[in-house]
Every structure is written in structure tokens, then in C-alpha cells.
Amino acid sequence: MPIRPPDYKSLAVKAALMRRVLIIIVMITILATLFVYLHWPALYNSVLNYRYARTAKAAAAYRAAPELVVYDDDMKAGRQLMAADKNYQREGAWRGVFHTPSFLSQPNGFPRQPRCMGVVFLHALPRPSGPLTLVLVDIQRRITEDAMLVMLVPHVYRPLPTTSGDAEFPWEELPWQQIPGDQMLVIHASENDRTRIFAGQLDPQVPNHFTFDCMVNADRTTCDGTLGASGQLTLAARPGGNIRFSTVPLKPDDSPGGNKIFLPGVRMP
Length: 269
Prior knowledge:
This protein is α+β, with helices and mostly antiparallel strands and 269 residues long. 25% of the residues lie in helices and 32% in strands.
């Protein structure tokens, strides 16, 4: 069977076509890279705004189950909780566990305090005279020479005025700014005590009020959270219990850990 000579004309046409395709691909790549370089800040902010909007909508409607333990420093109970629910986490070599909703654990999901160890309460509450306000109470821990302090820290996300002066929904249309609450509630326990905190529950009778329970060993006390007309959140333990509580004022921009989260100009619902 004779060997057919190569069709150089056909190969030349194919080679020319491939060169054109490669040139087009290179041009598109260069233009796309240039576009991303010039518009990167806007694209990055758009991605963050979308994530914040999605997360904040879930946060505004979040309701924890009654009797959900959001903090337990007992090692054995902590292992059981982690085996039953993937939303429980352990902080390094710390002996206990804390519970955080899954949508807050994702990267760029929501700004949270450093050393946060669980979410006690998270929901949108109405102020007595004002718009809905996103409220978060999380847990931080500090060990001193003679005590273990479990700190319940309030965070209030208040909408900034828009150009139209409207500070209501929809969430995704508003710029938001975090302001610290006026005080945090501190539980004083010893390192040998077992401290548990249960998820906060909405008050069906008072829209701007919620409750949560704290337990040290066998002593259990109910605490109240109230959102005032100025947008500040007050946490207080009810009298009569055997657990030692104290309140520590929070100055603006001076929450534990030196955290200063402000988002001016970012449309964070």
C-alpha cells in the first residue's frame, strides 16, 4: 500500500486556525486579568456583601432549641455533645465545648469576637422606638489566679441612616455598623466547677426581651437580656440564685480582646 504524502496545505490551514484560537484565548485572558485588577476592590466587596447578607438573614431568624447547651466545660459531657452535633467545637486544649450555628462558622460568614466560645443568643429584636436590630450575645473565657471568668458579651448591629432616612428592611439594602453593648455579664466560678450556659429564648410577651439560663454545678439562674430604646443591650441575672455574677461596663470600641469591628460603607445586613 503506497504511503500518501502529507497534505501540507491542510496542515497549514489548521495551524493558522490554532494560532488564531490561541491569540483569542490570550487576549481574553489579558482583558479578564486587567478587568479584575481594575475592579478587584468592588468585586471583593460584592462577594463580602453577599456573604454578609446571606448570613445576616439567617442570623435574624435564628432560634435555638430550648435547653440547648451552648457552653459546657465538663470534658466527658463535651465529648458526648461533639459526637451528637457537629456544631459543637473545642477551643484548643480547653476541656469543654461550645456551640456555634453552622452559618457563623464559615469563612467570612460574620464578624465575631476573638476567643468567642459559643453563641448564647442571636436574633433580630425590635427596639421600643426604632427599627429591627440584630443582637448577638457570645461567650468568652478568662482564667485568673483564683477564678475562671465566663463572660457573656453583647453585640448590637444597628443600621446606619440611609440617604432616604429609611432604616427598616430589606436587610440587603442597608449599611450596618456594629456597636458594643453597654455591659457584659460575668460568671465567677472556680476551675473545679462545672459551668453550663443554655441558649437564649425569645419572650413571646415582650418583643425586645429574651432570657437564658446559666448553671454552675447544681445551681441554675435565669438571666435577662433587654434591648433599650437607644439600641444598647442590657444583660442581668435575676436575684436569689447562688451563682456569683458581676457586670462590667463596655466602653464604645473597647470590648474584651481589644476587638474593634466597624464596617462603615459596607452593606452588611
